[in-house]
Amino acid sequence: MPKILRATAEANPNIAIIKYWGKRDEKLILPMQGSNSVTLDEQLKTRTTVMFSDKFRQDEIWINNKQLTTPEELEKVMPQLNIIREMAKIRLKAKVVSYSVTPVAGGLAGSAAGLAAVAYAATNALGMNLSISELSVLCRLGSGSACRSVYGGFAEWKRGEKADGSDSFAVQIADEKHWPDFRIVVGVAESGEKKVKSRAGMKHTVANSILYSKRLEYLPKVLKESKDAILKKDASRLFEIAMRDSNDMHATMHDTWPPIMYLNDASKEVIYAIHELNQNGIKAGYSFDAGPNPTIFTLDKHVAEVKKILENAGIKKMFVSNVGSGPKILKDEIEHLIDENGNIRKHSFDEKKNMLVIEY
Ligand code: PMV
């Protein structure tokens, strides 16, 4: 019997503290600047099974039980798959089946977990033995922010200098055990797809924002300061830097022509309320990606107050996450989303049990 080229991986999203917004190379996904992030725990994970087989006539990509068909939907996964095939010197078609608990394309960093899981599962299915930096590069080629999801804890994506992108990958700042009372409260203000995808939004900003060049000037300094605050567990320093950076990135978005606005009324209410909470000392810091969903960095002792703020802003759904770990490979037959014959196993998320249920 021929060897089954199949593997399953799980990866967690990461939320940027210092945000990546803008590329210097669109094809290789090379950033204009460095960025850093914290990895979430398993509550918003993505599980992906990748199988390569000579039985498959074409590539098939499924996310949350929906097959991706349009070029726009496929633009992240296909380049990543093609590079992996090139590296492994194979031409076999692939089936990729992914389930993401994060709302896809809702500005909640779901693509980071998704593309990291594809890179891990595909390279594992082909028995490729890559270093974590090489895996980070592969993740980056799917979605920039995904390159930071190769690490648990806190990670920095190095801008790199080389034109081929071989030095633009993530390094770990501190692992998931470093800061036990650090919490990330993720509010779901809107789980629909965002109007302007981050890829288009950042391109537009780099081309049109007058403020963007100022952002590039200030980033190296805050990258250093935020890393230092993480290492020293200086919460109030880190939360202030995070809020300022989120505001700065959104300012450059508003400064494009026509402007891009991801924040909604609930997001703005959260911003005001967090500043009120912080009046006598910083207890929490908000951060927004390319969407209206607030992410609040805080400490365990302030979680109840932060949850109240989100509730008052009309945000009903939220996740309180610890600092999470890096990707893992699942080996048990029952955990694969594709069976050994290449058929997709029926699967769905059971909200009550809070787990992925696979029919076997
Ligand atoms: O990696 P992308 O293309 O999903 O872009 C992510 C951009 C932000 O989430 C807004 C910031 C970041 O660094 O994650």
Structure explained in plain terms:
The chain is of the alpha+beta class and 360 residues long. It has one domain: Ribosomal Protein S5, domain 2. It is built from nine helices and 18 strands. It has helices at 71-74, 77-88, 110-125, 132-142, 198-208, 212-232, 235-254, 265-277, 303-312; strands spanning 5-11, 14-18, 23-25, 30-31, 35-39, 46-53, 60-63, 66-67, 93-100, 154-157, 170-174, 182-188, 284-288, 294-299, 317-321, 328-330, 347-350, 355-358. Strands 8-7-9-6-1-16 form a six-stranded mixed beta sheet. β17 and β18 form a beta hairpin. α2 runs parallel beside α3 (110-125) and α8 (265-277) packs antiparallel against α9. It starts with a strand and ends with a strand. Bound molecules: (3R)-3-hydroxy-3-methyl-5-(phosphonooxy)pentanoic acid. (3R)-3-hydroxy-3-methyl-5-(phosphonooxy)pentanoic acid (PMV) binds at residues 16, 19-21, 35, 109, 111, 143-145, 198-199, 289-290.
Tell me briefly what this model is:
With 360 residues, the protein is α+β, with helices and mostly antiparallel strands.
Q: Termini separation (Å)?
A: 22 Å
Structural class: alpha+beta
Q: What strand order characterises the main sheet?
A: 8-7-9-6-1-16
Supply the number of helical segments. 9
SSE ordering: EEEEEEEEHHEHHEEEHHHHEEHEEEE
Beta-strand content estimate:
15-25%
Shape annotation: globular
- Distinct small molecules: (3R)-3-hydroxy-3-methyl-5-(phosphonooxy)pentanoic acid
Helix fraction bin: 25-40%
Q: How many separate domains?
A: 1
Calculate Rg over CA atoms.
Answer: 20 Å
